[in-house]
Specification:
Elements (H helix, E strand, L loop, with lengths): L7 H6 L3 H5 L4 H11 L4 H8 L18 H13 L5 E2 L12 H8 L2 H4 L11 H18 L3 E2 L6 H15 L6 E5 L4 H11 L6 E4 L7 H4 L3 E8 L10 H9 L3 E6 L10 H4 L3 E5 L15 E5 L12 E6 L4 E5 L5 H5 L12 H39 L3 E2 L7 E5 L4 H10 L2 E2 L1 E4 L2 E5 L6 H11 L8 H7 L26 H13 L21 H4 L5 H4 L11 H18 L3 E3 L5 H18 L7 E5 L4 H9 L3 E5 L9 H11 L3 E7 L11 H10 L3 E6 L18 E4 L19 E3 L36 H34 L18 E4 L1 H7 L3 H10 L6 E2 L6 E4 L7 H23 L16 H5 L8 H5 L17 E2 H6 L9 H4 L1
Helix pairs in contact: 3-27, 4-27, 5-22, 5-27, 6-15, 6-19, 8-15, 8-19, 9-10, 15-17, 15-18, 16-17, 22-27, 23-24, 27-30
Subunit structure: The glycine cleavage system is composed of four proteins: P, T, L and H.
Keywords: Oxidoreductase, Pyridoxal phosphate
Cofactor: pyridoxal 5'-phosphate
């Protein structure tokens, strides 16, 4: 009776999380292994992974815990964070996320599991949401072209510096920054300027551009509006003078202030940048938030990052797509204008929807309320004898209290309010959407001026507004109907659902994108992100108030170092591209510290991710391309020749492992040794780390530095194209050159290269996701996840191999965690293109794999470990059925210019109209394996990209266009 008894301990443990994360169960894995020709996961990985890179020891990670245990552990960490009223300012503000947006965007997998909209036909919902965001930014900044978001305000300002140098009349000279700019922005600009030889001059521009600076030449100017001190001043005189000097002028602006103040465009600015955080996005200890950039029309085609444009589909109907510079890094490589590959789409969607929900009137009300609190606060301080430095301000005051600043800040903290200690004599105080009367009373008390003050309502009656009459906004904005139709929660809820239904995300089915690792983003990992203890903390709050965060950050850094075999990790880079840059800056600083300033050559295989080359140029390096052999591996002979050619100039080799072609290169050890022998460093791009975790560690098989993609391997969701996190991991000798931060010494070494992101720990608000993933899986779970990822890729390759050539394989004919199928012979024989196959997959209910990267005319497939066998088979069967359709085109049964592939995807509207095609409506919409009851219907037909680029429209049309 007791032979099958299960112990209480086993029952308490429940189902291990690993079984929730990994799609194929034991029975499915056995079937897949049989297809591939192996008896176990260990046998497969023993054959696939080269001996030279294999790890022999188990990862030193804490044992896996259950979902309930991990949530309890995270709750304990969250409770160690202290939430005080955030009146520090400096570009980060308390905000109220409308619950309808919190629940239906940030917490909704239809939005957070979507991929970047490179397949626009199945991304129309998020593209419309991004067009809303672009319209908000363009309207409020008064500049006609805005991008689909950048990483943060400081990065946007650095991109504006690069843009100014590229498009301006003055090609030399200095980049001039106003002393009242945000300190973190100034620091990031300096980090980005130094490697490219740009001199940054920071000076007080309140009285204009100093003559001695003007004489040296000025190619660009950055102004803050309102300033970091809170000052609001008329920027027109300094902008006019800058233009006389031939400089391009950037204004870093506050979107909420711009609902009341004259726009940067009207003031004469060429570029506007900033952060949309206070439009309903939690502070999250620094991010993620959607930075923005808007430019005048002349610079529209030079805008860095992504731009959503309006085009037409095959029926001439309006359709949205990414315009102009889609993935330009992969096309232009070292000639790219920026290394930014991801945006902050999820956060841009939230900020845009905040504006949709409130509309222009609601935004103005929030701004007026915020300003009114600041004005009343100033009135009370003045009544108590405290000097307010600036008479004109929006939400931020600078109080002059000689010798007492630290005392005041301490007293405020004891009363539950965080203020900014500017220096020994000045205190900064910022009001926001969450400020209330209790906070005003606490601030007055901290300054010691509460005795005998009149009531707040009396102060309100006495206090004049502090916005200059000459800078009050008079033009209209946000006139498009979308900003007027969704005032009720019912209307907003339905709008968000309608857009989500137009998209394809992981909540619908598999997204088999090679190199992008679209795996499960578990709800347990996601849930803590929205807890206020993680979401509502200001990034510049005193570290003693963030002990839970700092513990989580330290533990995640240590565990990532253990997983990768490196010695030290920085979590500051808030995208993979910024992790690349940080790693290369560390290499550059290391060589310079050793007196090797001539080491500037960066060797990059021709197959590498395009961001590698763009990042190298930004780090002040010269890119030299190394050939890739026909087998997809680095051409060892060409590499040795290049090492010999450049010798003492060699700084670093950037290599992706497994290779971008999806194979484990057997010669990686020799490659690393050759570079090291020549005095260079080895940068292992971490984009394909999902094939290594638990099996091999780049820091142990030859890497000196890697960036990791937490939004790939470590389960932070892609969010429709962002957020991302790109930590940089280094061996001990490079650790002194990791990023640091001027406002937070604990964020990096004193000898560091400077910040690469605005916040000390980058997008800290989403780090609980990866912390939870590692904690839930443990060492064995992470290893098995990798093994199943490799198994799944090989299973797909074996099933498709009889129908499509698999372009590259490694030892034993095996691939790593992804495979490339070659459509070029079929295209040559039948005219069916890789685009046709990608769009036809939509009709079968799939997002296409990665198209034409790294090889034109191919599809790169990465199934990940999270897709179960039924979904893998559904995909394989769809691809096999498409191969049969291609055969019908090749045989002449279907014309080359009129067949289900060339006309894909098929919308419901297309099927309900006239039908003159040589295939049936059923063949179009319900090919083999597609259920009519579960059909995903694309909202538009194939989009004309060239039309959209020729006729660039990147914001919502004005209200007048609807009248006509």
């Amino acid at each position: 009776m007791t032979a099958n008894r299960t112990s209480l301990t086993e029952l308490e443990r429940g189902t291990p999380f690993e079984q929730r994360h990994v799609g194929p169960d034991a029975e499915a894995q056995a079937k897949m292994l049989a297809q591939v020709g192996f008896g176990s996961l260990d046998e497969l990985t023993q054959a696939a992974v080269p001996d030279i890179i294999k790890s022999t020891e188990q990862l030193g990670l804490p044992p896996a815990r259950s979902e309930a245990e991990v949530l309890a552990e995270l709750r304990g960490l969250a409770e160690r964070n202290q939430l005080l009223a955030p009146m520090i300012g400096l570009g980060y503000h308390g905000t109220f996320t409308p619950p309808v947006i919190l629940r239906n965007v940030l917490e909704n997998p239809a939005w957070y599991t979507a991929y970047t909209p490179y397949q626009p036909e199945i991304s129309q919902g998020r593209l419309e949401a991004l067009l809303n965001f672009q319209t908000v930014v363009a309207d409020l900044t008064g500049l006609p072209t805005a991008g689909a978001s950048l990483l943060d305000e400081a990065t946007a300002a650095a991109e504006a510096m690069a843009l100014s140098r590229r498009v301006g009349k003055v090609k030399q000279g200095v980049f001039l920054v106003d002393a009242d700019a945000l300190p973190q922005t100034v620091a990031v600009i300096r980090t980005r300027a130094e490697p490219t030889g740009v001199e940054v001059v920071v000076t007080d521009l309140s009285e204009g551009i100093p003559a001695e600076v003007a004489e040296r030449g000025v190619f660009g100017v950055l102004l803050q509006y309102p300033g970091a001190s809170g000052a609001v001043r008329d920027l027109r005189p300094v902008i006019e003078r800058a233009h006389e000097l031939g400089a391009v002028v950037t204004v870093a602006a506050d979107l909420l202030a711009l609902t009341l103040l004259t726009s940067p465009g009207e003031l004469g600015a060429d570029i506007a940048v900033g952060n949309s955080q206070r439009f309903g996005v939690p502070m999250g200890f620094g991010g993620p938030h959607a930075g923005f950039m808007a430019v005048r029309q002349a610079y529209a085609r030079s805008l860095p990052g992504r731009l959503v444009g309006v085009s037409v589909d095959a029926d001439g109907d309006k359709a949205y797509r990414l315009a102009l510079q889609t993935r330009e890094q992969h096309i232009r490589r070292e000639k790219a204008t920026s290394n930014i590959c991801t945006a902050q789409v999820l956060l841009a969607v939230m900020a845009g929807m905040y504006a949709v929900y409130h509309g222009p009137e609601g935004l103005r009300t929030i701004a007026r309320r915020t300003h009114r609190y600041a004005a009343v606060l100033a009135e009370g301080l003045r009544a108590g004898g405290v000097e307010i430095v600036h008479g004109a301000f929006f939400d931020t005051l600078t109080a002059h209290v000689p010798g007492r600043a630290a005392e005041v800040v301490t007293a405020a903290r004891e009363a539950g309010v965080n203020l900014r200690l500017t220096d020994a004599d000045h205190v900064g105080i910022a009001c926001d959407e969450t400020t209330g009367r209790a906070q005003l009373a606490a601030v007055w008390s901290a300054f010691g001026v509460d005795g005998g003050l009149p009531a707040i309502d009396e102060l309100d009656a006495a206090a004049a507004d502090a916005l200059p009459a000459g800078l009050l906004r008079t033009d209209t904005y946000l006139t498009h109907p979308v900003f007027h139709r969704h005032r009720s929660e019912t209307a907003m809820l339905r709008y968000l659902r309608r857009l989500a239904d137009r998209d394809y995300a992981l909540d619908r089915g598999m997204i088999p994108l090679g190199s992008c690792t679209m795996k499960l983003n578990a709800t347990t990992e996601m849930e803590p992100v929205t807890w206020p203890e993680f979401g509502a903390l200001h990034p510049f709050a005193p570290v003693e108030q963030a002990q839970g965060y700092l513990t989580l950050i330290r533990e995640l850094e240590e565990r990532l170092a253990e997983v990768t075999g490196y010695d030290k990790v920085s979590l500051q880079p808030n995208a993979g591209s910024q992790g690349e840059l940080a790693g290369l800056l560390a290499v550059r600083a290391y060589h310079r510290a050793n007196g090797d300033e001539r080491r500037t050559v960066c060797l990059i295989p021709s197959s590498a991710h395009g961001t590698n080359a763009a990042s190298a140029v930004m780090a002040g390096m010269k890119v030299v391309v190394v050939k890739t052999g026909e087998d997809g591996e680095v051409d060892a002979d060409d590499l040795r020749a290049k090492i010999g050619q450049y010798g003492d100039e060699l700084a670093v080799l950037m290599v992706t492992y497994p290779s971008t072609h999806g194979v484990f290169e057997e010669h990686i050890g020799e490659i690393c040794a050759a570079v090291h022998d020549a005095g260079g460093q080895v940068y292992v791009d971490g984009a394909n780390l999902n094939a290594l975790v638990g099996l091999a560690r780049p820091g142990r098989f030859g890497g000196d530095v890697s960036h990791l993609n937490l939004h790939k391997t470590f389960c932070i969701p892609h969010g429709g194209g962002g957020p991302g996190v790109g930590p940089v991991a280094v061996r001990e000798h490079l650790a002194p050159y990791l990023p640091n931060h001027p406002l937070q010494p604990a964020a990096g070494p004193a000898t560091g290269v400077g910040p690469v992101a605005a916040a000390p720990w980058g997008s800290a608000g989403i780090l609980p996701i990866s912390w939870a993933y590692v904690r839930l899986m443990g060492a064995e779970g992470l290893r098995r996840a990798t093994q199943v990822a490799v198994l799944s890729a090989n299973y797909v390759a074996k099933r498709l191999e009889p129908h499509y050539p698999v372009l590259y394989t490694g030892p034993g004919g095996l691939v790593a965690h992804e495979c490339i199928i070659d459509l070029r012979p079929l295209t040559k024989a039948t005219g069916v293109s890789v685009d046709d196959v990608a769009k036809r997959l939509v009709d079968y209910g799939f997002h296409a794999p990665t198209m034409s990267f790294p090889v034109a005319g191919t599809l790169m497939i990465e199934p990940t470990e999270s897709e179960d066998l039924a979904e893998l088979d559904r995909f394989c069967e769809a691809m096999i059925a498409i191969r049969a359709e291609i055969e019908k085109v090749g045989s002449g049964e279907w014309p080359e210019d009129d067949n289900p592939l060339r006309n894909a995807p098929h919308t419901a509207a297309a099927l309900s109209g006239e039908w003159a095609h040589p295939y049936t409506r059923s063949e179009a919409a319900f090919p083999a394996g597609v259920s009519a009851s579960d059909k995903y219907w694309p909202p538009v037909r194939r989009i004309d990209g060239a039309f959209g680029d020729r006729n660039l429209v990147c914001s919502c049309p004005p209200l007048e266009s609807y009248d006509s």
